[in-house]
Amino acid sequence: MIELNTDRLRIVQLDRENFELLTCDRAKMESNLGVLNSDYDLDDIFVDIMKMSLELALNNQEHFQWYVDWQIILKSENKIIGSLGFKGKPNKKGEVEIGYGINEKYQKYGYMTEAIGSVVKWAIKQNGVNCVIAETERDNTASERVLIKNNFKTYDIKNDCIWWRYPKQTTNP
Asked: What residues contact 96, with CB distance under 8 A and at least 6 apart?
């Protein structure tokens, strides 16, 4: 299990056991991670996405790190406030796509900006990774700000989505 630390956050890449628990027994996962019980429930859509990611991770053990979820823990409260993860192993161009979300109560404090910056620094150092990409909806200005603050640049606009890139040669966030 990989753990990254910032001034305010612990960002923990889940191992197999805790990734499985995320989809069926969140309280046990939190206990395993040594954090207090979160005060929010995961919506069914997120749980379904995590179940699909878990299946992909189990079927791609050699690339497990690119399918697993990372939990964002606020050190001052010792609580999980959000999560992030990659949507699969690096493609032929060396791109990995990141996705993320944070509990509404903890938005607008810069926590997600801090978490993304730390995980992107980690990702860009991994073998086979040339850049990290992300997709936002055009009206999701908060998510856009997180990416802009981490030196992501727009590279494509399709329908209602904006695509962002953080290349290896960019100064680390």
From this structure: 66, 86, 87, 88, 89, 90, 123, 129, 131, 132, 133
